[in-house]
Design the sequence.
């Protein structure tokens, strides 16, 4: 059976599933707060499992809580083609980041069932645990353990802001499986995701063919000074940790701009102590996020920042500690899988362009152990990690159509 351009998913059914999932863990203004291993995450998982079982799939669950819904293939010896993303969200997240990739995979299987299409290779729809890393750092945690980037003990020991361990929460919500992590072998993996950037919408493109992923460095800075009264401490005698952070913030911006346009950097999280309006900060802890698709650029930015930050703190009489708390090298996705995505977009007549992903994704880790590629669709104003995140029903359908064709080309259709 040849792949034909009229082979499409049910866009209305996909959209209905997205809206139904969005009812679980609602945000305060239209988005979602379904953080990893909360009760809401557990409820979302249960709904996904029910939908998968209704579609005739069997559910596997590993010790990191990652869900693997399998549709059998005609060849029992053929390795599965995996497709999916994540269901957890940011505290003020949108309805589509990650979720589109999981439910797009489910819709793909539903469409194959509707049309009576059998594949040579099995298809497995996956929901990776704790991709966002917002409650338990670092991000992409379960896929990282699967790919050997982190140990399972390390993941279990990570604590949230209240000191609750990830391993304990996995047990508490009832989603810790028995399957050993990382034993599954993959023929390939495809991840559908919203762009989380403005390029596709600005250029009027319906599909992003992701060829590379940016490398990332997360560096946690602790700047220490001396707490003292804001009104009675003379300016020359102050050791202001907040001022040190401000100067390092400017340096971060200068370094990233020196490698524009393909490098970015910012301070995204900071905590000031004691955070009182009339006390000069004695300590500031903040995280720098550097990204680039070029490893040499990434290393240059880190080196210049470490050296410059130390000089700033030495000049101001401040203490400085720097710890890398996350990161990965730039990713080049599998040429064969990328070609399958590009060919699918052409076959279906969707406008498309190659993209470098600016965000981290589970596919970035899996790419180290299996052929991998990503499909992206636009999002309004490039906005993500925000409750105002939005996509159109047509964009969701187009991205999932391309996913369907790329997966079928890779899994093989049995006549």
Sequence:
């Amino acid at each position: 059976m040849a792949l034909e351009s009229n082979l499409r998913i049910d866009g209305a059914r996909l959209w209905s599933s997205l809206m139904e999932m969005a009812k679980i863990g609602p945000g305060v203004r239209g988005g979602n707060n379904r953080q990893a291993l909360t009760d809401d995450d557990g409820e979302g998982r249960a709904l996904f499992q029910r939908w998968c079982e209704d579609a005739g799939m069997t559910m596997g669950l590993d010790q990191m809580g990652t869900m693997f819904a399998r549709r059998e293939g005609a060849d029992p010896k053929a390795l599965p083609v995996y497709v999916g993303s994540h269901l957890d969200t940011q505290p003020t997240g949108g309805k589509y980041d990650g979720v589109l990739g999981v439910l797009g995979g489910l819709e793909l299987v539903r469409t194959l069932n509707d049309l009576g299409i059998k594949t040579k290779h099995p298809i497995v729809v996956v929901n990776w645990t704790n991709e966002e890393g917002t409650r338990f750092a670092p991000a992409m945690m379960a896929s990282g353990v699967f790919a050997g980037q982190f140990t399972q003990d390390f993941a279990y020991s990570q604590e949230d802001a209240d000191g609750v361990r990830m391993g304990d929460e996995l047990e508490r919500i009832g989603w810790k499986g028995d399957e050993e992590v990382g034993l599954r072998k993959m023929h390939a993996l495809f991840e559908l995701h919203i762009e989380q950037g403005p390029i596709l919408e600005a250029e009027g493109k319906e599909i992003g063919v992701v060829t590379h992923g940016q490398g990332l460095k997360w560096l946690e800075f602790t700047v220490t000074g001396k707490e003292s009264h804001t009104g009675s401490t003379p300016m020359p005698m102050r050791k202001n940790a907040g001022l040190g952070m401000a100067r390092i913030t400017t340096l971060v911006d200068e370094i990233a701009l020196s490698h524009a346009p393909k490098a970015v950097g910012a301070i995204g999280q900071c905590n000031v102590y004691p955070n009182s309006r009339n006390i000069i900060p004695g300590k500031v802890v903040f995280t720098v996020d550097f990204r680039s698709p070029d490893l040499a650029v990434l290393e240059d930015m880190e080196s210049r920042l470490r050296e410059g930050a130390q000089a700033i703190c030495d000049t101001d009489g401040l203490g400085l500690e720097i710890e890398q708390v996350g990161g990965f090298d730039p990713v080049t996705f599998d040429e064969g899988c990328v070609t399958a995505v590009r060919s699918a977009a052409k076959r279906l007549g969707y406008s498309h362009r190659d993209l470098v992903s600016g965000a981290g994704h589970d596919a970035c880790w899996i790419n180290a152990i299996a052929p991998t590629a990503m499909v992206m669709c636009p999002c309004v104003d490039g906005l993500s990690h925000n409750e105002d995140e939005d996509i159109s029903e047509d964009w969701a359908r187009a991205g999932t159509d391309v996913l369907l064709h790329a997966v079928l080309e890779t899994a093989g259709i049995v006549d």
